[in-house]
Amino acid sequence: MKKWYAVIGDPISHSLSPFMHDYWFQQHGIDASYIPLHVEPADLQHAIESMKLLGISGFNITLPHKQAVIPLLDQLDETAQHMNAVNTVSVKDRSFKGFNTDGDGFVRSLLSYPVDKEKALLIVGAGGAARGIAFALERAGFTDISITNRTFRRAQELALETGSKALVMADAEAQLSDFGTVIQTTSVGLTEEALPISLTHLGSGSVVADIIYNPLETPFLKQAEAKGCLVLNGVGMFVNQGAIAFEKWTGIRPDTEEMIKLITEKLGGNHVN
Ligand code: NDP
Fold first, then answer.
1. pTM for the whole structure
2. Same fold, 3-100 and 104-235
3. pLDDT tens digits for 213-260?
4. Nearest CA-CA partner of 233 in 110, 54, 65
5. Atom 2 in ligand 1: which residue has the minimum CA distance?
């Protein structure tokens, strides 16, 4: 029987997940469809119950439901517990298990670049995405992680939980040339004037990542590139978080390089990373 998968969110119409997963299902000869479901917060519980009743085989969860879905699931894996957020659900015997593949997706994408795990790394931002990334970097063996954030208290809390250092923004800006890798995880990425951190002291040899992928090149990445840094946008994270979900559902590791090119083209750009 044909299997079905979904992504639930509000809004959801612009999601690229259906394109990505349907492409991989087709490529691997799997008889399945992946559909976007617009679910408002007040309907979340009914939506989850209905999906169980209708025999869904797996699903993704995006904003604003990543935390609210947790009490509606049967099991939670350790990463999702640490992050207190779920983006992927696997189904076995009608039991729903929540995972979070965002952080590991980012790390897989970063590791396709020449980064040195022993060199100092700076995370800019301390929201949900930064949280997943900080835990995943620690698990992947990065030894010197600092976190800075507009609201310093949140950087302190995350640093305490992940065994990292918290830096006030002014200190992070002054010490920027010390970091081999800088990761921009805030939601700031649209306007030229509003960089979340000044890049004046950024060194030319750093790897600089922005997890935003639409636009493909944020003002932050443009400035880092102009300074001679190797830059990485958020398409790789998006594709790799999806690939890890696909692997959990099917046991197959899909081709991420090809998908990064396809998604980049869909977003109107050349393949830059
Ligand atoms: P959150 O709302 O949890 O966190 C937002 C972060 O941005 C906080 O650190 C916040 O700082 C900071 N911030 C917001 N506005 C400003 C500002 N004007 N100046 C400085 N800092 C600011 O969001 P998420 O962590 O869930 O998502 C962040 C971004 O990551 C989004 O743009 C999202 O699209 C992207 N993302 C990309 C993914 C991918 O696959 N590539 C996956 C997941 C997310 P403060 O604490 O001070 O409010």
1. 0.95
2. yes
3. 999 999 999 999 999 999 999 999 999 999 999 999 999 999 999 999
4. 110
5. 127
Q: Is 216 in the pocket of ligand 1 (CB under 6 A)?
A: no
- Identity of the residue numbered 250: T
Closest C-alpha to 89, from 111, 116, 65: 65
- By the 8 A CB rule, do 240 and 111 touch? no
Superfamily of domain 104-235 in CATH is: NAD(P)-binding Rossmann-like Domain (3.40.50.720)
- pLDDT tens, residue by residue, 15-53: 999 999 999 999 999 999 999 999 999 999 999 999 999
Residue 92 alpha carbon to ligand 1 centre in Å:
33
Name the residue with the closest Cα to ligand 1, atom 4.
Answer: 127
Six-digit token pair at 133? 């990334």
Confidence of residue 190 (pLDDT cuts 50, 70, 90): confident
Task: Give 17-49 as a DSSP string.
Answer: HHHHHHHHHHHTT--EEEEEEE--GGGHHHHHH
Query: What are the residue boundaries of the structural domains of the chain, listed by start?
Result: 3-100, 104-235
Band (pLDDT 50/70/90 cuts) for residue 270 is: low
ipTM here: 0.98
Amino acid at 189: G
Q: 211 near 237, Cβ under 8 Å? A: yes
Separation of first and last alpha carbons in the chain: 38
Fold of 3-100: Rossmann fold (3.40.50)
Measured in angstroms, how far is the CA atom of residue 57 from the centroid of ligand 1? 30
Residue 259 tokens, joined: 């998908």
Asked if residue 215 has a cis previous peptide bond (ω within 30° of 0), the answer is yes
